[in-house]
């Protein structure tokens, strides 16, 4: 199941790359892509077999868990994507609040029609 999820993430990130206009989103998606590809390669080529391979974890985080560099990249990407989303930055680099303000201004006629 995790192999399929990693493969889907890779496809979605690669397809999203065409719409990128933000350097921060490019970094976040690059980290996500690198982490997903790192774990996917382990799952494809390591024992016990194709698609069922074990991911090599070698970094101990105290007594919490053990992970690898790909896991670190995925967590940093998730945090950066959450921050960008909270700030309203879209994949194209535009901020959501400016888009909403621009569309509201465009909807109101310039002559002030409708004002009493």
From TrEMBL:
<keyword id="KW-0378">Hydrolase</keyword>
<feature type="region of interest" description="Disordered">
    <location>
        <begin position="92"/>
        <end position="116"/>
    </location>
</feature>
<keyword id="KW-0472">Membrane</keyword>
<dbReference type="Pfam" id="PF01252">
    <property type="entry name" value="Peptidase_A8"/>
</dbReference>
<keyword id="KW-0064">Aspartyl protease</keyword>
<keyword id="KW-1003">Cell membrane</keyword>
<keyword id="KW-0645">Protease</keyword>
<feature type="transmembrane region" description="Helical">
    <location>
        <begin position="24"/>
        <end position="41"/>
    </location>
</feature>
<protein>
    <recommendedName>
        <fullName>Signal peptidase II</fullName>
    </recommendedName>
</protein>
<dbReference type="InterPro" id="IPR001872">
    <property type="entry name" value="Peptidase_A8"/>
</dbReference>
<keyword id="KW-1133">Transmembrane helix</keyword>
<comment type="similarity">
    <text>Belongs to the peptidase A8 family.</text>
</comment>
<feature type="transmembrane region" description="Helical">
    <location>
        <begin position="61"/>
        <end position="86"/>
    </location>
</feature>
<keyword id="KW-0812">Transmembrane</keyword>
């Amino acid at each position: 199941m995790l192999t399929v999820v990693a493969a889907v993430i890779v496809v979605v990130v690669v397809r999203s790359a065409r719409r990128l206009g933000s350097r921060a989103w490019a970094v976040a998606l690059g980290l996500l892509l690198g982490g997903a590809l790192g774990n996917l390669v382990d799952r494809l080529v390591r024992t016990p077999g194709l698609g069922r391979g074990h991911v090599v974890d070698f970094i101990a985080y105290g007594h919490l868990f053990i992970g690898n560099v790909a896991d670190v990249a995925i967590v940093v990407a998730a945090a950066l994507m959450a921050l960008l989303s909270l700030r309203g930055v879209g994949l194209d680099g535009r901020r959501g609040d400016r888009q909403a303000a621009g569309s509201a201004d465009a909807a109101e006629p310039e002559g002030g029609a409708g004002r009493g």
